[in-house]
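Below: protein 1.
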Amino acid sequence: MSAGHSPDRAAAGRAAETLAARFLEARGLAIVARNYRCRRGEIDLVARDGAMLVFVEVRLRSDARHGGAAESIDARKRARVLAAARHFLARAPDTPCRCDVVLLDRLDAARVEWIRDAFTE
């Protein structure tokens, strides 16, 4: 979370990431890193799905007036996630990978939307 985010918003973001991690673990993924950061970007969760490395962007939107969770992932955000993924992969360059998105409109495990391979054009 950046310095401009309120403590309540930061806490909600952490809660959303925890909920997303539990959701993915319940579906067989293993979380290997949280909040991976480098100079060019960040990744909320890094997980293993078998041999596949999965970079996960978690989006929580409780106020639909500014668009839903999916609409909040713009080209700039996508570029930052991909830059951080490339940085992470420098340690294991031949690892198969994908970028997933977990969308939450509220902190409710029954309302999680998981989009696999979300950044494929």
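Below: protein 2.
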Amino acid sequence: MSMLPSRTKFRKCQKGSLKGCSKAGNFIDFGDYGMQALDRGWITNKQIEACRVTISRYFSRKGKVWIRIFPDKPVSKKPAEVRMGKGKGSVEHWVACVRPGRVLFEVGNVSREDAQRALRLAAAKLPIKTKFVERVERVQ
């Protein structure tokens, strides 16, 4: 199951900037425990899928998993040994742009120890540092 948008306004996009902290998705909204990003970077659709598989396999049909990021940015690449020029390369894969503070995954209906172990196994599949966070009641 590869994650990519069904359609986009433009096929290719520019690199963009990852400076600053996350402006949205910083709190646990669905589950009881979560994995929060401490670094900034691009997370590919394959890395997200690897994390999802790891967490769901560890729970073995217990609990629930929420994926809070979606790869909506196309990354293009030119083939090896191609001369410069002749336009932008074709889309190679899709990434999610992650800034510090963003909650990446949430889990629920499991014990704290199980959630911590599953999210630690999943964190090993990611190129950024993460931390384990618990739900706190927010005053609206």
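The first helix runs from residue 45 to 59.
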